[in-house]
Structures are given as structure tokens and as C-alpha cells.
DNA sequence: AAAATGAAAAATGTATACAATATTATCTAA
DNA sequence: TTAGATAATATTGTATACATTTTTCATTTT
């Protein structure tokens, strides 16, 4: 049995999504159906369906590639902060030893690896904590924000925000100690710093 | 200038959404494009687009109308509890007098009005607190859960869960007192009770 | 010039035909 | 029977033509 290929509308959705996220399709681009259909060598029908998905996801708004304003980003980060804070608090009580070891591993990699490793390790650090809630709804919400988070993370790790890894270490420590309240607070402070650093460096405005 | 009518695909999305929510299209129904196209007297194209929207929203999964399991509902309620808890805490510090008066108004209506008034008042009570965050992301997430929440609310208010309104009153009180921590806790306990009551009465299983 | 008008062009929305898959029913061989 | 193959049917996916709406841009009017 051979693996069935995803239909064009799904593929189109995925490639467009990727291209928007990595900047190949820049912010504010008008997405015209015929233009995209030409580019991907398929008809307008699957393109339309891809665009609808992107719109529901919030990456496209009214046919234009959407860049969130500073206010938008602050709102998104508030949600992230609330949910990841909860996740950290929860982890302090319920984290598995495997996950805890993973966290330590990611800290090590983030200190020693190359840029790409660091990026991935920092992503996994946060993701592991979120997944430790074992609540797919929470994971889903965070994942939906990954597009913006990714941009921010790229900034803070590649531009070496000071103390970033130290903070990860502290968070990990408090989770290990079972100190949920402290862990929650640390995550929220940590994210607040990421936010300010990124907004500053990216020169985001309203 | 006359008001432009929404395109068929949007209208189809809205009517299907409504019909799923009020049970006209029962859970687990297979949504076939031709069948719906016939019923709404339009072609398959706009139907497909409507279904994609419903799928992105989570109301439809793999062409079937989706009913969340008990576990799903618990997960959803955990998110709701975290976010509404935050909203209550936030409100304690920042709520406007207008909103506070509204809350009191809704409590009164929920005590005296008819079933329909009660239902609406209880909805507005929670919605007002959520909106007081002035964070559209939070509002959006909660709204996306409204389908399930609606079901639950119908149960708890129409089957008169005891102390429901008393709890609203306490929450309102603590918000007015500026006691955020207490308000947060009360909201979370309140929602936990709603959840258990509803699951019990609706006979939801996995 | 600025605003208003209205063709021309472009883009979106819808129906439909046909192609590709998935599902169901039917039949055969163990 | 029943597991497996295969034909029949139903459903989904895609391209395309045409209809409708929106946008653009030149022209006229003030």
C-alpha cells in the first residue's frame, strides 16, 4: 500500500502557510487567487480553499497577509503568558521525570549548540512545559500562536537576549522543586521580557 | 446605497453553524456536500467552503458533526476556567462602573426573568467579565467555545443548579471589593460546579 | 484641481462537468 | 459462513466557464 498524497488544497494551504511564516510572502501582500494558482500550477478552487483556512487561522485577513500590530502582539502574549504560566504551575506538581530531563537537556543544548540547535531547543523547552498539561486545547491554542511566537523567538535567541537561558534554568529548577507558584511567576516574567526585547528589536509599531 | 448581501458560502456557513448548535443537525451527522447543496439550494462550491470553515472552527471533524467527549469538555472547561479566572482577577482591578452595574443588573434579571431572560443574563454576566480584559484574543478563544458552553449553560440554568446566582453575586462582590485573587478563585470554583452538574445531567460519557 | 461619473479591467463568487477516491454491495473461493 | 476480491455507487477533489462584484483609471463636471 502506498501513502496517499494530500489533496492540492491542503498542500497549497501548507506551502502558503510556510511561505508566509518564513517571510517569502511578505506581510501585507494581497493574495490574488489567479496569481497563486499560476504560481502553484493548480486551479483557483484549491487555492480558495487554502485561503479560507489561512483566514480562519488568522494569518490572512481579508485577502491580505496579516502582520499583527504591537497591540495585537501584546494581546497574544498575554494569552500565552496566562496559559504557559498555568502549564508551569501544573508541571511543578505533575511533571514526569522524562520531561524534566528533557528540559535539562534543552537547556544544555541552548548553551552549547549552534544557532539552529538553540532555536529548536528553546522552542522545545516551552513546548514541553505546555504539553505537560496534557490538555490538547491548550496545546492547540499555543500552536496557533506559533507563527508570531516563532518570529519573537528568532529574535530573542539569535540576538542573544541576556539571561534567557538562565531564566529557563530557574524555571526548570522551580518546577523540579515542586514550587508551582514560583514557576508560574518566573514563566510570566520570562515571557514579558521576551516580548519587550522583541518588540524593541523588531521595531514593531501600531 | 443598499446593503450588500453576504455571499452564499458565508450564509451557508452561518446557517449550518446555527443548525448544528441548536441541534437541528444532530451530532455525528455525516455532512455530504450534495445533500447540503440540495437542502440550501446552492451548488457544492459554497458548501465546501462552509464546511472548511466549520472544520477549522472544530464544529465538524472529518465531515462529521463533532460532539466532544467528556474528556474533551473537561479540557475545554479547563481553558475556560484559566482564562475567565484571569478575567475576573483583572476585573477586580480595572472594571468600569458601567460594567459593574451591568453585572448587578444581570444578577437581578437572572433572579426574576423568565427562562429565556435568565439564559441570556447568565451569558452576559460571564461575557462582561471576559470582555473587561479588553483582550480580543481572549474573547475570541472563549467565543469559539460558546457552542459547548451554550449547551452547558442551558442545562445549569434551565435545570436550576442550586446557588448558581448566589455564586454570581459573590463573584460580583469580590470584583467590586477589588479582591482579585478571591474573585479568580470563585470563578474557577463556580465553573467547576457548572461542569460537574452539566456532565451529570447531560449524561455525557467517553 | 477636486469630486463625480462611468466604462474597462480585474478579481471574486458560483455552478457544473469531469476526474480521482472512498465506500458499499456483490460475488467468489476457502 | 466469511475473508477477500471486484464491480457498482457515492462522495470528494479539481478545473473551468460564466456571473457578479470590486477596483482601476480615464473622462467629465463643478
TrEMBL record, chains A, B:
Cited Pfam families: FCD, GntR
PROSITE patterns in alphabetical order: HTH_GNTR (PS50949)
Residue ranges of domain HTH gntR-type in the record: 6-76
Record's keyword terms, sorted: DNA-binding, Transcription, Transcription regulation
PANTHER family per record: GLUCONATE OPERON TRANSCRIPTIONAL REPRESSOR, TRANSCRIPTIONAL REGULATOR, GNTR FAMILY
Protein name: GntR family transcriptional regulator
Species classification: Bacteria, Bacillati, Bacillota, Bacilli, Lactobacillales
